Amino acid sequence: RAKADIGRAVCFYESRMDEAARARHTLAQDLHRAVELDQLELHYQVQTSVISGEICGYEVLARWNHPEYGQVPPSEFIPIAEESGTILMIGEWVLRTACRQAASWDRPNKIAVNLSPVQFAHADLAKLIHSILLETGLSPARLELEITESTIIADKSRTLHVLRQIRTLGVTIAIDDFGTGYSSLETLRSFPFDKIKLDRSFMSEVERSIQAKAIVRAVLALGKSLEIPVLAEGVETNHQLEILRTEGCDEAQGFFLGRPKPVGQIFQPDHAADDGLGSSFSGRIPPV
Ligand code: C2E
Ligand code: MG
Ligand code: MG
Ligand code: MG
Question: Which positions fall inside the EAL domain (predicted)?
């Protein structure tokens, strides 16, 4: 009897596994068609100077509007896209669309586009970026690319080679999620990054934990001595921003400064972009 129960349990477990695998497979297939079906969208999140509050740039964040599941977060679909290779097509679409949109703005702000390690492994990335810049007319100085430590670790010599090629175009490179990988310091030694993006896990702790604050200080000191500006990710409160100001951080990004927004809304203040509640701030005359 016990044996039969175990048998049933295993069966149940396996069918659940199948279900998860099937769901992933379906998502991967849907994702493959997402670009041509126009289901992908770019959101932009502002990056500001800590001292002046001036806008430095906008990070480009991909969104997938799935017809059945609604908005699938990138933390779910990017890994699936990387596994299935679709990230090459999606990554190219993100780059081209972001460059085209930014080129049409009447302000000269930079855009920061995330790159996957897979994009470094396969395509002739520098050549692709070069042709997209020519095609869209975006000045290379307005494009920043964000990579993570995992990209460097995947194939160090090749990645460094491609990064140097990209730099030659006049495009800048930021190291993303800094401080969470296995070899953050080694990463900084291997390439002269243009920006360090301190992972948001440090911000969420900085008010309560002296350890987190010590690490924030240390990274800021490192940035100063290497002459690399530091941007703090995940700033959600004014108090966190004040700490960053006191500690001499260069730039900040986070919900407190602005949420990621669709391209049509990025130049509007946050409250006006919200639902009806914010309309009283927008200066529009309310309907009678
Ligand atoms: P990331 O590059 O580190 O992007 C920052 C993430 O933090 C975004 O999540 C953003 O919405 C979120 N965030 C910003 N401010 C705050 C805050 O104050 N508090 C909290 N809790 N979160 C904040 P998102 O948009 O879900 O993207 C997640 C990750 O997916 C990104 O992390 C990036 O690694 C990846 N990703 C997004 N778009 C792309 C893309 O086009 N290509 C590639 N390869 N990866 C992408
Ligand atoms: Mg990023
Ligand atoms: Mg990040
Ligand atoms: Mg991240």
Answer: 24-274
- What is the DSSP code (8-state) at residue 285? P
CA end-to-end span of the chain: 73
- Contact between 34 and 78 (Cβ < 8 Å): no
Q: What is the ipTM metric for this complex?
A: 0.98
Predicted pLDDT of residue 25? 86
Residues of the chain scoring pLDDT < 50: 273-288
Query: For residue 6, what are the CA distances in angstroms to 3, 18, 57, 197, 244?
Result: 5, 18, 57, 49, 56
> Given the CA of residue 82, which atom of ligand 1 is nearest to it?
44
Q: Is the CB of 78 under 6 A from ligand 1?
A: yes
Strand locations in the chain, DSSP E? 40-49, 55-66, 70-72, 110-114, 143-147, 172-178, 195-198, 230-232, 251-252, 261-262
The protein residue with its alpha carbon nearest to ligand 1, atom 43, reads 114
